[in-house]
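User: Okay, second chain of the day. Same drill as before: sequence in, structure tokens out.
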Amino acid sequence: MEANAPAADHAHGHADHPPIANVSSRVDARVLGMLLFIASEIMLFGSFFTAYFFIRVSGSDPWPLPPFHLPVFVAGVNTAILVTSSFTMHWALQAIKRGNRAGLQAGMVLTFLMGLTFLLTQITEYARVGFAPHDGAFGTIFYCLTGLHGAHVFVGLTILLFITIRSFRGHFSPEHHHGVEIGGIYWHFVDVMWIVVYATIYIL
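Assistant: Same drill. Structure tokens below.
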């Protein structure tokens, strides 16, 4: 009976506190989770790009359909704004890694403002572009692709807002900055995906 007591206590301890799962020493579990989520988002965008290229290849109509035209210059400026926001996001992350909270706060505010400018400019573009989603396959795929990306920008801005608020409350430090890093990974994904969307929709 006494010999079995330690084993029973050991089993009872595992029941109360399950053993710690194996964790990779190279990639943090939270970062890995975000990367896997982004992989699924890439597949989602891939399905929309497949529809876009099918329409472009199978259809004989020019792109964009006359008499419509796409504001390539405005979209290009908007692209520059969004790409710049990736640099300020990186700056914010590097600042907190060095213990520079003022740099983190400045970088996050700039990133949020540039992302907001991008989204508002895209909404303004919708109001002035001159066609609607129901104007054939051209209008449908244009609004689907750019709208899907716009939805991701909105989610990214929500994440950036929470990170910015937390940065002013002093929640991050050189030892604890995964919240900034994970939000930054998502924001970089949004930026890169827009470059692909811009090159595909507006340039090709």
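The chain has one domain: 29-203.

User: Thanks, on to the next one.
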